[in-house]
Amino acid sequence: MSERLWYLKRCDLFQRLSPAQLGALESSCRMRQFARGTPIYLPADSADSVLLLAQGRVKIGSYTEEGKQTILAFIEPGELFGELSLMGTEERDEYAEAVDKSTIILIPNEVMQGLLEENPAVSLGVTKLFGLRRQRIEKRLKYLLFRSNRERLVHLLLELAEKYGRQALGGVELRIKLSHQDLASIVGSTRETVTVVLGELQSEGLLELGRRKIKLTDLARLAASVNIPTPRLSGV
Q1: How is 76-97 classified by DSSP, letter by letter?
Q2: pTM for this one?
């Protein structure tokens, strides 16, 4: 089994494909390696493919007219991204960057379109992907518009705990390394404000800070402070 085929079979979206369909898909794809911090695509690049993250981690973001960065999402192994190209968009309107050393499989749009037409399960999966990504962005926009800097940051920390949290001695450790600037870019704040709020939360005994590491020491109290249920850890 080729490395490309192995990665494709690990993607939930392609698990219902027949061996013949998987083989045809594998022969049409290209695989590329990207070093940490390397752009995978930039705004205005040609949107001629859908991408599958095989290894590593990728962030999706955009820039304002003033050049301020906004992080929209993190992509994990087995997830597709760049899927807006399937809507007929000729150019990318966001950027994708490798957070860690990453392996990417590029699937040409025409190949993906063929799969959507042939396989209802794949078509439904892509439709759900569009819906979930839109729901996530709308939820974040709601927080940006109606919440304080502290509330936005706490909501983000709880969201990260649900997806990346691991039970550790003294609390829940986030298994994703984010700088204060990264956190600010996600919640629409400044690095200085995020640093101040994190310091306040640490002094209140709600978290502990390390070098690009965060441990939430009282998940229940943190969730109660923004009136939401305590998140369940995904077990990542």
Answers
A1: -TT-EE-GGGGGT-SB-SSEEE
A2: 0.85
For 148-224, the fitting CATH number among 3.40.980.10, 3.40.190.10, 1.10.10.10, 2.40.50.140 is 1.10.10.10
C-beta of residue 174 within 8 angstroms of C-beta of residue 164: yes
- Cα–Cα separations (whole angstroms), residue 130 to 32, 124, 125, 127: 25, 10, 9, 5
Fold of 3-144: Jelly Rolls (2.60.120)
What is the residue-averaged pLDDT of the chain?
Answer: 90
DSSP reduced 3-state for 215:
strand
CA distance 59 to 186: 11
The least confident of 86-90, 91-95, 157-161, 175-179 is: 86-90
Neighbours of 109 (CB within 10 A): 16
Residue 20 pLDDT greater than 80, yes or no: yes
What is d(CA 161, CA 150) in angstroms, rounded to the nearest whole number? 16
- The residue ranges of every structural domain in the chain are 3-144, 148-224
Count of CB atoms within 10 A of residue 54's CB? Answer: 21
- The type of residue at 235 is G
